[in-house]
User: Fold this.
Amino acid sequence: MSFYDELNETAPRERLRTLQLQKLQTLLREISGRNRFHKKKWSDAGIVAADIQSFSDFEKLPFTYKSELVQAQEEAPPFGTNATFSAEAYTRVHQTSGTTGTPMRVVDTPESWDWWGHCWGHVLKGAGVTSADRVFLPFSFGPFIGFWATVEGAKRVGAMMIPGGGWDSIQRLRMMRELGATVVCCTPTYALRLAEVAREAHFDMTSLSVRALIHAGEPGANVARTKARIEEAWSAKCFDHAGASEVGAHSFECEIQPGGIHLIESEFIAEVIDPRTGQGAATGETGELVITNLGRLGFPVIRYRTGDLVRMNLSPCACGRTFARFDGGLLGRSDDMVTIRGVNVYPTAIENVIRQFGSVDEFQVTVTTVQEMHHLEVQIEVVSGNDAERVRTHVEQAIYHALSLRPTVRVAKPGTLTHFEMKARRFRRLDGPSESQQT
Ligand SMILES: [Zn+2]
Assistant:
């Protein structure tokens, strides 16, 4: 088993908690009075940082919301007030993809950026990446932070990094073959897209040396059926990873692949809460992930409401790590959870059902709310050569068997649904009667 920071990764939980509290207190001391964003939040809540001596004190600190960070940026453009140091101290700026709202900028000092690399070291070592590996990054480098940080991580573990920007999908596949790439980092959607491109171009996937794919950006890599589909198409192991621009690279999947991801507890404090009440959820209960990053002094987030649904598992993992796990990875967005006839439905649960159909190319789920009642519509694109109506009926039945729901399943014309290259948004919500319900 390969570790990045074995001492902390395998430490008894009590020692991990002590380490977290020490790092938290150092962080609070460092940013206290210097970081305008947090200074205002604490003074509004009547809190003095030096008074935080325990985890129960910690829970008195106010939550941080994305909307507040966005507002802080609008009030003090272009970077906002969540900065601990003067502007000259910062050497990087990145921007969120904006898939769930206004794009937000995040800034890092060399020390904070170094910390990003440290976290990505955990992600790569977790997947067994070593200096013998060649890591292919099949995307163009834009303002999104995620894959820049992968480069830092690759440097930490001594792997060779192959930048794959400026090429189309088939050129990327050829380069992977030519350069002997062993690891690929991309979204689950793009891994499937590359396999689709290979099929269309009669490119032999077994001619590649890729043994591991590390995924981020979407929950797919821990959706059992999606994972199985990627692993089959690539004849490689598929690892999940979770992170966010405003938080850091916080979770990774280990080589044991226990059906979940480890939180890097030496660098983050995670809480799971009921998103409706803000109260802590019982261990093992599904709730919203609230996270505090401990090593990004230049851009700290404290008790940050991620909007991601998780289920925490504190039992030790067979890999030897004591770091908590999120079973099933990120289960979806708390905003996307809907209750249909008493059943809580997560987007990942629907994806898991649909992905078992090799005859379905792409899909889109729409939730329409009419008079407080949610209705589910699933559109599928069927691979040509299949009996579309038959596939449609099978998908409908499979969703019913898995979730006890009867959604409307429709067959979309080939090419009408968006085929995502990067971050997929296959789940959308509409208010009021939809066209489909009026007919
Ligand atoms: Zn593990």
Remarks:
- The pocket of zinc ion is lined by residues 254, 256, 258, 262, 317, 319, 321 (CB under 6 Å).
- Residues 72 and 80 are 5 Å apart (CA to CA).
- Residues 433-439 have pLDDT under 50 and may be disordered.
- The two ends are 57 Å apart (CA to CA).
